[in-house]
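Thought: the user wants the 3D structure for the chain below. I'll pass the sequence to the structure tool as-is, report back what it returns, then summarize two notable features.
Action: structure_tool
Action Input:
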Amino acid sequence: MTEPEPSHPTEPALDRPLAGPLLIAAAFFALAAWSWGKWPDPVVDFGRELYAPWRLVLGERLYADVAWFNGPLSVWWNALLFRLFGVGLATLVWANLALLALATALLYRLLAGVGGRIAATAACLVFLGVFAFGQQGGIGNYNFVTPYSHELTHGFVLALAGITALERACRRQGGLAAILAGLLLGLVFLTKFEVFLALAAAFAARLLALLGRPDTPGSLRRVALPVLFGALVAPACAWLWLARELGAAHAGVAVLGALPYLASEEVRALPFYASGMGLDDPARSVDLLLKWTAGYACLFGLPALIAWFLRGHGERRGGALLTALPFAVYALVLWANRGELDWNGIGRPLPLVAAAIAIGASVALVRARRAGAQRDAAALTLALAVFALVLCAKLLLNARVVHYGFVLTLPATALLVVLVVGWLPDWLTKRGRAGGFARSAALGVLLAVVIVHLGTAREWYAWKVNVVGSGRDAFYAASRGEYLWRVAREVEARLPADGRLLVLPEGVMLNYLTRRRSPTRYVNFMPPELIFFGEEEILAALAADPPELVALVHKDTTEYGYRFFGTDYGRGIGGWVRANYREVLRVGEAPLRDGRFGIALLERIPR
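Observation:
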């Protein structure tokens, strides 16, 4: 009788209970220390994540005094942190690091439950090395420490907690875990709509898996009703609070977050969104999708095919050499050819991966039902795959791990890692094949991917040598940050603490660092915001209460179909500024004219 193969013959150390978590924790602390203080972008997006909660701490009201087009939860949470621990970038950094640690722990637990500890460890290391701390372009913010939108990262962490709670509720047939899952679903509704939609779809998939469960009939009702009840609590409480501040009608719109704006044809027509989804050139997007899918098949399918012919006894005879060889070969080959690949396209097949896993899990569930068996792991896999697939929908034919993909393609990436490191090698091993060989090759590929992305981040971080801000607000930035900080000190010298500063079209970080408020409730003046809120309304507010200073910050917005503020869009506001203000300081080049960065500070002309 042949001795049975162990489930993970080639990495027994990594399959020990504490080995993976300890390795993940070491990577977390190392990456945090390596990238410390270099996460935010000084101009783009993140300034509003500081400015809005600061204004709420001073007594202003979200939506009424500070315009916002996402759900209220993240701003309220950050304002609470500012009240408890003091206003400062450091407050959000430490809070976000704690949430990142929680997200990593939740991700590990969920993935270990469906793919084993080795696959979960690998997926969490990819998460930390590529998504959590990285910077893959000139703009920061696409990380979990200083995200461009806290609604996205907060929603993601809450979603992982929600799936975990729902899984517990499904296994125990209801109880407090079901109510908790619903509460978390309701909280996600108050963040970003795309995360809520993905989580709601995942909840539906997991609950439908309870239908026809042979051991406990009626379990769907016992779980679904408490979930539904819990899901209504947070939106109802938010509406009541906002109704007290804004009135019932405005509260309803505010609770819906960005959803009303998504109905605008003018917003949907902006080329930024079509390009982000790969719909600006569908034929090219499909061509790249097919090429990258073929690349995935070669990278992960070839070693699996070799493993099939090697058989398990060959793996035992080869020992450590046969295990290490594919790991080294794949890692070195990818690293040697790193300059030949368009790494921005590496995520394109991820929606297909998520769809394939969802189909596979559905088939497993159907077979289990026919056999009268219980398959909780397959049901959880289905929920995770649906969550990943719906999150990827915003990127559609242009899925990527950079930009918005730092959250939107993260679940699909994690499931891909589980597939190639966990499920596929285990499937081969159970059939007497060399599953460890396939796992080793997959780990080599993943190592190369992580190293390439960390190398890119290192290159961008190397430019960040200028200190911006002071005290609890200090961080490192490249030349744009240096220019911004020079202007900030000039603003502080020219403008009293109760003075108003208008920054156009983007750069509210300047308001936050100087603690000078914007003259209107509007935070940014980019093409989407002018469509959302109306340029005429914004101009009327400015003319009624003009600020003492205006800062023009260079921003090329070609991606939205309009290159420069004041000439290609925002002409009314731009003309009003030119007629009523004069330049008193310029740092860098003249802004909003060509491709060179600069900031101009203008003061109001006496009348």
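Final Answer: Structure generated. Residues 282-336 form the longest helix (55 residues). Residues 48 and 569 are 21 Å apart (CA to CA).
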